[in-house]
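## Example record

The block below lists the input lines for one assembly entry, exactly as stored, with component labels intact.
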Amino acid sequence: MLQEKVRSLLRRVIKEVNQQLPQEKQLGTSSDTIFLGESGNLDSLGLVSLVVAIEMEIDEEFGFMLTISEDEIIFQKTGPFYSFETLARYICSIVEKESSNG
Amino acid sequence: MDRPEYRCLLISDFTIQTFAGYLENDRELPGIKSIIAPYDQIHQVFANKYLPCRQKKPEIAVVWGQPEKASESFHHLTHYKPTSIEDTLKEVDHYSSQIVSLSNRVKHIFVPAWVCPACHRGYGMLDMRKGGLAYTLMHMNLRLSENLSKISNIYLLDTQKWVIQAGEKAFSSKLWYMSKIPFGNEVFKEAVQDIKSALRGTMGNARKLIILDLDDTLWGGVVGEVGWKNLKLGGHDPVGEAFADFQQAVKSYLNRGIVLGIVSKNEERIALEAMENHPEMVLKREDFAGWRINRQDKAQNILELCKELNLGLQSTVFIDDNPVERYRVQSALPEVLVPEWPKNKMLYKSTLHRLRCFDTPSTSTEDLNRKNIYSAERKRRESQKMLVSPDDWLKSLEMVLKVENFNDTNLQRTHQLFNKTNQMNLSTRRMTEPELLTWVEENNHHLWTLRVSDKFGDSGLTGIISLEVEGKKGRIADFILSCRVMGRQIEETMLHILIEYSKIKGIEKICAKYLPTPKNKPCLDFFQRSGFHYDSKTNLFIWNTRDNYPFPKHILISK
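Predicted structure tokens for the full assembly:
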């Protein structure tokens, strides 16, 4: 249930962020999309846009403001922003964590 | 299908890539290809025309800076260091002069006005006094506006409106610290809409006609059922007041030069009676250039009304509370703008004011007088119905055509006519004022303007002919006539004037090359029946000046 909600959230966010990116740098929304590394399209500015948009969308969807932008792990090439799948899992884990804390 | 695309240079002192993305990905016309100038190098970009970004020959530019970077004094002020307003304004003058220096290298420059984040309260209750942050910023923007308004192709845009629209998402500290973007995405989206709308205006694509439904659009209730005395309009009733207010708003567009029409499924006599008799009716019969009030299909009625008013569908906005009618018109006439209309009557006025489709790069006396011009046109049509033969009708109009050379006093209107006339336009050259002046300065280029008046009124400056002479050959560079006076033999008179001039100057051949656009078919139709020899392969029309060009008998030429 949560996983599906998060995937749908992520697709919405990517759609919004794609409006800010040149055509050739736009991101896919399928679960096998790679964001970072040699086969990825995401540059540093795109990454920031994605992070900020995810934070805002989590606030809208789940009602709490996360600051994943402060988590240095997100800027690592093999970190949670590596692919659609790793990012979905990362968001699920922090939402679950935040929910259990709250 | 190819869509028109502008190369747009984005000059900014913050990271502008996000804005560039929105600008490029927006689907509305015209398309834009962004050229991003180096980050935070506004002054260098202005100073160095050899920079790669300037070498890409941008057609338009957006210069979006922050006030604290444009003015050091203002920067000090944000840290509560006292500064003099004179010093600040000197810096604004310098900044403005740099923008002006770019104005003859691109067609249009858009400059978002300076704003300060809402979180900076400045001096609080003293902030609007001399020395306050808000006070200084207002003066800076005012000075910027005064400096830039002197140049016709530079437009200062109201950033504050975008900020208000974006609400609390207008500024983002997170985006600033992570990527040096001061604004939230909503501000950029609003900016894109305004810039696109402005560009459409400069391309002559601003809407000129609002066609309105009546029942539950201009007033509450169905007049045919409840009678005009029981309509919801004005009075001590929030909905009635909202309708009266909406009518006031619609009427205000008349003063801006927008033409009004009615298309409504009603009985004409009953509807017009309501307009005449209801004490709180703001819009009166004479405010409308024409109407179709009957039980016929609205799309067909709109088509006929536009034809009668000589206005294209692409110039038209249709406002109707009924989603079924809106859908019908939108599907049948995709060129007509049919805005989504709110169910809540209290939102009618604000929805109208939010429409971006009326933006034009300038306003002329002719625009402001358009209400009278169309009222005269309606009388003309009525007189046409009374006279059986078109010839009798043309004679009865007592038309006078005044030919003037291009000069300072008609520059603004000429420039406007160049950029907004679509139908009777031979080559549809869109030019900025400097481009127009440069063209006319050439010795072998000649440009005349034409004013048309008749017994019903003055239609103002409505025609342009220009000629490019090479030896004994003349080429009609522009043949432009406002749709308001089309079909009254002004077109033939224009050709007569041109041929007569050519004879005097020893020009033996006059040619006119028709450049087709989606909108200028009426021009082709006219030239095809003009008597000029037509080569359909090259779209070239030719007249040998040893032959006289017949002069229409019902027009008087005044010089």
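Chain A has a mean pLDDT of 88. Helices of chain A lie at 2-18, 44-62, 84-101.
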